[in-house]
């Protein structure tokens, strides 16, 4: 069974729910009504078929979906449709489960009973390329990505890429936005601080990704982290002392 909402709010183009729980599905449908075209599947086999056919922008996945088989099933879904942003909802997932889910490439993890306002905030954040991740996992995830980056560079005989040279390509405004991404600010926070629109922030991000040769804000955060270790971060932009350094949006405690 599928349901569709035809009211679009330019937040996310299409959104799929995968859950056998009727109560959760009904609540998510009500809370997110009008945000996107919405689809629903209630089994893993149907999910695999519809995911390939529809290619939704975002998948809200119940970790208790029958026959999902935990992290292994999530990894299979990532291979089937790598462009779809996956957010996992759970009641009983362990910290280890959650950690391996992020390693598998999910963009967020939330409790099934997440409040409606937080649910909408999460959808907006993930659709803007941000992560919805608990703080306890963030530094661990960044450290692992940096280690992987170093290994790849060593494999290709380049252990010391010129990150400063890459960042020097950015305009002052682009660099300021990159610093704010490294400080954990969302698009909305950046737009408010710089008194520009979120659309303008997104346009700057597109240019930043292209100039730095990356595809998401997490890799921008890694580059800013490396720049900071070299003692250069903030040389072009004054840093605000009250900003917590989270590297990407972390909206959960």
From TrEMBL:
Keywords from the named record: DNA-binding
Response regulatory domain segment(s): 14-127
Lineage of the organism: unclassified sequences, metagenomes, ecological metagenomes
Matching PANTHER family: NITRATE_NITRITE RESPONSE REGULATOR PROTEIN NARL (PTHR43214:SF38), TWO-COMPONENT RESPONSE REGULATOR (PTHR43214)
Chain ranges passing through the membrane: none
GO molecular function: DNA binding
Native organism: mine drainage metagenome
Residue ranges occupied by any HTH luxR-type domain in the UniProt entry: 163-228
One GO term of the biological process aspect: regulation of DNA-templated transcription
Record-given protein name: Transcriptional regulatory protein DegU
Keyword match DNA-binding: yes
SMART domains to which the protein is assigned, alphabetical: HTH_LUXR (SM00421)
InterPro entries: CheY-like_superfamily, Sig_transdc_resp-reg_C-effctor, Sig_transdc_resp-reg_receiver, Tscrpt_reg_LuxR_C, WalR-like
